[in-house]
């Protein structure tokens, strides 16, 4: 989907953190822990993915990329420490080290019609395809994301000059605008309020390249595969709008006349849209979504208005 107008915008993504995985066994270790195909990653590609419990429930979603033989995992800062700690307990004798490198980099999001030109201005290069990665001047990394967006990963020492350059070329926006762009593209971000609430397919990870059904075992793989091959999925993630003045939060429950007093779903992410309403990503029962009668907080609460996503939501 294209941005809403001809503006080009930039914001600092300060609510995100970076983990770097180094060592001879990093690739194999991550491939055996995550839902995405880590072995297929090259220094020129990135992927969305998730990390699950043995019961197949998502603990974290992330963006993953390679730089030489190191792997970088970008995830919410609130989840960085527990995910790093949990993954580290499984390293055992493997030659892998998980390090918090958030302070070494500054993450910037650039969106809009001139986003690619700005990325090239900063780094001297920009990938031509979605999920492409280029490694530019002064150590900067550029990742192309869905929706005419580029993310810049800039070494901290160069960040101030880069931010000043971008501020002269684009409108500086609140990070919530980037959150809204993620919502518009149907990219979920698991937070503490929604940990262990969904299997990956409920949050559409399989529809955005975050799940491989041909790789070997990882925590939760049996349940994720069974859900896929047996067609037992009853919930999916949808994009919706809530009326102006409402403030939905991740973890808020949804209700439908079809389920009575029982919840039919949950808010995953929410962010204000430019027109004043609030857009959300919400996992809900497919039958409730198809009825079009879903309410926030209570059966008589504000009604959600379903919106289009840039990909088809499977319902079988």
Write structural notes for this entry.
The protein has seven helices and 17 strands. It is of the alpha+beta class and 316 residues long. It has two domains: 8-184, Probable tRNA modification gtpase trme, domain 1 (Gyrase A, domain 2), CATH 3.30.1360; 234-307, Beta Barrel (Elongation Factor Tu (Ef-tu), domain 3), CATH 2.40.30. The strands form three sheets. A six-stranded mixed β-sheet has the order 8-9-10-7-1-11, with helices on both faces. A six-stranded antiparallel β-sheet has the order 16-13-14-15-12-17.
Query: Biggest sheet, in brief?
Result: 6 strands, mixed
Number of strands: 17
Gross morphology is globular
Return the string of H and E elements: EEHEEEHEEHEEEHEHHEEEEHEE
Instruction: Tell me the strand order in the biggest sheet.
Output: 8-9-10-7-1-11
Can you tell me the CATH class of the largest domain? Answer: Alpha Beta
Q: Structural class of the secondary structure composition?
A: alpha+beta
Task: Give the termini distance in whole angstroms.
Answer: 25 Å
CATH topology of the largest domain: Gyrase A, domain 2
* % residues in beta strands: 25-35%
Give the uncertain stretches in residue-range form: none
CATH architect. name of the largest domain: 2-Layer Sandwich
Q: Secondary structure elements and their pairing?
A:
Layout: E1 8-12, E2 16-22, H1 26-31, E3 46-52, E4 58-67, E5 70-76, H2 77-88, E6 97-100, E7 105-112, H3 115-123, E8 133-135, E9 141-145, E10 149-155, H4 156-169, E11 171-172, H5 175-184, H6 221-230, E12 235-242, E13 253-255, E14 265-272, E15 278-285, H7 286-291, E16 295-296, E17 305-307
Parallel strand pairs: 1-11
Antiparallel strand pairs: 1-7, 2-5, 2-6, 3-4, 4-5, 7-10, 8-9, 9-10, 12-15, 12-17, 13-14, 13-16, 14-15
